[in-house]
Amino acid sequence: MCEVLTVDDFRADCTRCAGLCCVAFPFDKSEDFALDKPVDVPCPNLRQDYKCRIHDSLAEKGFSGCVRYDCLGAGQIVTQELYRGIGWRENPAQFAPMMDAFRKAREVQSLRAMLTAAARFPLSEAENAARLELLTACTPSEEWSISWIEGILSGPLPTDVRSFVASLKHHIERPG
Questions:
Q1: What is the pTM of this model?
Q2: What is the domain partition of the chain in residue ranges?
Q3: Which of 4, 6, 149, 164 is most buried as measured by Cβ atoms within 10 A of its Cβ?
Q4: Could you give the angle at which helices 157-167 and 125-137 cross, rounded to 10 degrees?
């Protein structure tokens, strides 16, 4: 059975990441982003040390989308566990695979976070058993690996998790 996960298991630690969210995702100039940025292109605010040069004033500088984004800890999983702390600037050959791994790890973390959050509902014994079974299935038994992540995402598990979470809607009170 899966160990108990908490919000700390999904907390982003930018100090242990290689600026992956600042590179892997595109954004369009809008009220959330002050400029256009294509996929897999570093944000111009990303410094050489993978830190944001305007982090303390993101919203004021037109990057409120960055303030609201949460990788759910996928950044440090990819940087530290899959790439052993070596960033894409130190090893340019891993740039494309690292960005792809980050996007996929974020999806897996999202599944795990949904199942962890579902524990807050007054689940029946059967619902909680199903939740724990799904959570165990989307938690690596050994170390994280790219092949494990891809196996999770290419199988039925993402659909199973989303169906399970949708089945819990009866736990949400509707305004009367």
A1: 0.92
A2: 7-171
A3: 149
A4: 160
